[in-house]
Amino acid sequence: MGVFTALSLEEARALGARFGLVVTGARGLDAGSVNTSYELTIEGGSRVFLRIYEGASAGVAAQEARLLVHLATHGVPTPAPLPLACTSGSFVAEHAGKPAIVLPWIDGASICQRGVTDAHARAVGEALARVHLAGASFAEPLVTRFGPADLAARLASLHERTDVPGHVRVVLPELDRRLERLSSPSDLGPTVPVIHADLFRDNVLFQGGALAAVLDFESASSGSAAFDLMVTVLAWCFGDELDRGLARALASGYSAVRALSDDERAALLDAALFAALRFTITRITDYELRPRGRSMFRDYRRFLARAAAIDALSARGLVEMLDV
Ligand SMILES: Nc1ncnc2c1ncn2[C@@H]1O[C@H](COP(=O)(O)OP(=O)(O)O)[C@@H](O)[C@H]1O
Ligand SMILES: N[C@@H](CCOP(=O)(O)O)C(=O)O
């Protein structure tokens, strides 16, 4: 996992030089599920993180780089990409025909689910709120790839495919029903210019109990803040069932930095259901139906279980549980 594109030391040196770096070592990292990651050692012993984009175009990578710079300079704990040495305002080089960026190395580690404490959850909630606040002044439009129409297209393709396993086929009518009910974007509450939209445990690094960085803004878009909060709650506050204490801690961290509006609060239940549906569908199309082994498998059933747990709550019950 994590190294889909090879990079020799000679190539790493040439790439590093484009960023004004003297590279002395390159090590492929067993990290991430989409892109190729390398640790580059720099003359003098420091390190940087090289990301080679496996799917995104140079234009998409450049926009993500500009977003990272904006967020990092407006209070979000995320590493800002290094600029190219000879091209003003550009952050994206190329390797093997693919876009590549270099980020400062962040010391830290992801937290496993059993290791998540209230303090971690609170810090994640605070960081998410900072993304929403800082993103408010990001002027470029960011369009989601995971809106209701995109999910409907994925479901339609599942209905048409002949290689869909029986356990997936039997849940398609339920997914259709859920999407039909949630397909108006207004269901999810007011939008902000930037949501992270994928703030899972592997996209946050902690060091010594403190949040070191929020990573991976590849799914970032404009969108509902309530949806983003509920994606994050579902990602961090479920072991085998919803951990209400963690959910409340995460929401309290969020609210301490950015208070939800009444409309956002009212949208939380549908936002949670849409979040569960989004990851159920994309896990079917992107993991269940693709060959195993290329990246860590992610089980769609765990998000169907989250949807069922949210079904058991009322809108008011969810707001009371989160205490927002
Ligand atoms: N700047 C960085 N410094 C150190 N490690 C990083 C840095 N950025 C990412 N990582 C590590 O690499 C992993 C994969 O990065 P990510 O950008 O999420 O890849 P992918 O898009 O393939 O999922 C992260 O989970 C994190 O552990
Ligand atoms: N967090 C998502 C998968 C998204 O993968 P990424 O590599 O794009 O962050 C999930 O768990 O389904």
TrEMBL record:
Its EC number is 2.7.1.39. It is an enzyme of class 2 (transferase). One of its GO terms (biological process) is threonine biosynthetic process. SUPFAM superfamilies: Protein kinase-like (PK-like). It catalyses: L-homoserine + ATP = O-phospho-L-homoserine + ADP + H(+). Pathway: Amino-acid biosynthesis; L-threonine biosynthesis; L-threonine from L-aspartate: step 4/5. Residues 27-260 form the Aminoglycoside phosphotransferase domain. GO terms for molecular function: ATP binding; homoserine kinase activity. InterPro entries: Aminoglycoside_PTrfase (IPR002575), Homoserine_kinase_II (IPR005280), Kinase-like_dom_sf (IPR011009), Pseudomonas-type_ThrB (IPR050249). Gene3D superfamilies: 3.90.1200.10, Phosphorylase Kinase, domain 1. The keyword Glycosyltransferase does not apply. Signal peptide: none annotated. Belongs to the pseudomonas-type ThrB family. This is Homoserine kinase. The gene is thrB.
